[in-house]
Design brief:
Elements (H helix, E strand, L loop, with lengths): L3 H14 L10 E2 L3 E2 L2 E2 L12 E4 L8 E7 L2 E8 L2 E7 L4 E2 L2 E2 L5 H8 L5 E10 L2 E10 L4 E6 L2 E8 L6
């Protein structure tokens, strides 16, 4: 059975040996993409790159394809092989600024939109502890922002028009 550590080592080797380097760096484009990963496109456009897949046995869960770009894991959640959302936990650049670990109030000033909704979700960090993270939905921008101790921890990008 392959462990995550072995999978990560294999991906690192594939990245090193792969002539196609992830050169396109656009950052976040609201309702559209992160770097060259585009919402609404088929995942087959990207599967030649090193990645691993998490498929759920639950038909209501989307498949998750995890790609590593320069030590940054980017998760693509797909329904019927179509990218529905993009998740960034380690780095997310918007208008030249790093959103991960940014103060939430600074983000509000940059995005120029108030959250449409707010919730609190318990996130397991280790076996013995977790965090109550604040989850903010920005409908117009197609963003879901997860915040802990007033700092952004996760950015989930989707197309707000898909919800209509």
């Amino acid at each position: 059975m392959r462990t995550r550590n072995n999978v990560e080592k294999n991906i690192a080797k594939q990245i090193k040996d792969n002539p196609i380097k992830n050169k396109i760096k656009k950052g976040l484009i609201l309702n559209t993409s992160y770097d060259d990963f585009e919402l609404g496109h088929k995942i087959s456009k990207y599967v030649r790159r090193p990645h691993y897949i998490h498929k759920w046995n639950d038909p209501f869960q989307w498949d998750c394809y995890t790609f590593i770009q320069e030590k940054n894991e980017i998760e693509l959640f797909c329904e019927d092989k179509i990218i529905k959302s993009i998740c960034c936990n380690e780095s997310c650049i918007y208008k030249g600024k790093e959103l991960i670990k940014m103060d939430f109030q600074e983000f509000i000033e940059i995005i120029e939109e108030e959250p449409a909704s707010h919730d609190i979700e318990y996130v397991v960090v280790t076996k013995d502890r977790g965090q109550n993270q604040h989850v903010y939905e920005f409908d117009k921008s197609g963003l879901q922002i997860w915040v802990w101790r007033n700092k952004i921890r996760t950015v989930i990008i989707s197309n707000s028009e898909d919800d209509e």
